[in-house]
């Protein structure tokens, strides 16, 4: 219970920490701890989809730059965790029992605003080739097991590469890098995924196709008051799906655009597939 106050201050600037399990003889305190753990788990999941400049003012994805509010929160979180009370429940911004200031919410932190920014991104369109036919020929439970195993591997792999599985529809997955999570090396990350996803599918007895592309996009919260989502607008979206479709039609695992190829050629061996004529695209 003594740690909940400082943990809540960190949560105010989206610095998510685990709440230790500490049972109390007071039922209400146990309820507060349980509710806090659930709240932080939901915030952590929500944060993974939010652009970092909206999550916390001046805090980069790797935590190298701290805003005043976040720094205050960190300072507050280093309080003696042996304290057994919240202290005074009085005015906003002050913890009289400890003499420390509780940080106000950063003025520029607006996680819910509809706004866009322009940045370079890399995206991947992934497909399990022939999965529809496989689903028809197997028991539903087996189909769910195969899909679930691959989806779990993919989420872990993309998380390790600091990307986001933005969405999926059955056997198709759409992955973004440097969209909601800041990542300077987004093209090498996409290139690695273009190699590991087909390999994992092959080990599971599946066939994969993938398209990778990189370029400029408008990213941010879009929609309306009743329906909003972090998303982006770019000609890369239809382009990367076209690459994936051509890869499947040509019997290839992955097709990439020149920008991804140029940054990955030191670590990945590429083969020229020829000139693809795609409608409405220049390259």
What does this protein structure show overall?
Helices cover 39% and strands 20% of the residues. It is an alpha+beta fold and 283 residues long. Strands 3, 4, 5, 6, 7 and 8 form a 6-stranded mixed beta sheet that branches. α1 runs antiparallel to α4 and α6 packs antiparallel against α7. The longest helix is centred in the N-terminal third of the chain and has 21 residues.
Radius of gyration: 23 Å
How much helicity do the residues have?
A: 25-40%
Overall pLDDT, averaged?
75
Head-to-tail CA distance between termini: 59 Å
**Quaternary structure type:** single chain
The sequence of SSEs as H and E is HHHHEEEHHEEHEEHEH
| Dominant shape | globular
What are the segments in which pLDDT stays under 50 over at least 5 consecutive residues?
51-109
Number of helices: 9
The major sheet is characterized as: 6 strands, mixed
Structure at a glance:
With 283 residues, the chain is an alpha+beta fold. It has helices spanning 4-12, 27-47, 52-55, 68-77, 131-137, 140-160, 186-203, 236-249, 258-264; strands at 94-95, 100-101, 116-129, 164-169, 172-177, 207-223, 228-233, 254-256. The radius of gyration is 23 Å and the shape is globular.
Topology:
Layout: H1 4-12, H2 27-47, H3 52-55, H4 68-77, E1 94-95, E2 100-101, E3 116-129, H5 131-137, H6 140-160, E4 164-169, E5 172-177, H7 186-203, E6 207-223, E7 228-233, H8 236-249, E8 254-256, H9 258-264
Parallel strand pairs: 6-8
Antiparallel strand pairs: 1-2, 3-5, 3-6, 4-5, 6-7
